[in-house]
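ARCHIVE CARD
Drawer: 12
Card no.: 0347
Subject: one protein chain, sequence and derived structure
Cross-reference: see card 0346
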Amino acid sequence: MDVRAEILDLKLRVEGLEAGAHVGGAASGHRREPDRQADLLREINDRTKQLQAEITAIKAAMADSRTEMTEEFAAVETEVAAIRREVNARFVGTEAENTCVRTEIADEFASVRSEIEQEFNSVRSEMTDLGIKLDRLLKRESA
């Protein structure tokens, strides 16, 4: 059930009742109009209570979701801390081992950086070529 649609419907019905009360009170002496208005007001009250119950249920579900999310974040933080401890434990060793690992990491980083730089230069060159072609086309159109 769409809560916004229900609220809008209720507002429109209340406005209709208010308009009917102003017109009906001045122009009509029917007994049925007050009964109809009372029925509509009861229906509005019932719907309002239903909406309040739904809102309460939604709030409870959101609170449960927040609790679950907090627990999941805590679990992830625990896992990350464990991974950090494991990585740090692996790097504890002789200075020669650490130097070797650092050299491998530096070499891999340099290789990746070189590939990225080549790709960037290629894209820059293509952009320059496209700019030149665009300038030529604009000159042709203006001439």
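Annotation on reverse: The CA atoms of residues 29 and 134 lie 79 Å apart. Residues 32-91 form the longest helix (60 residues).
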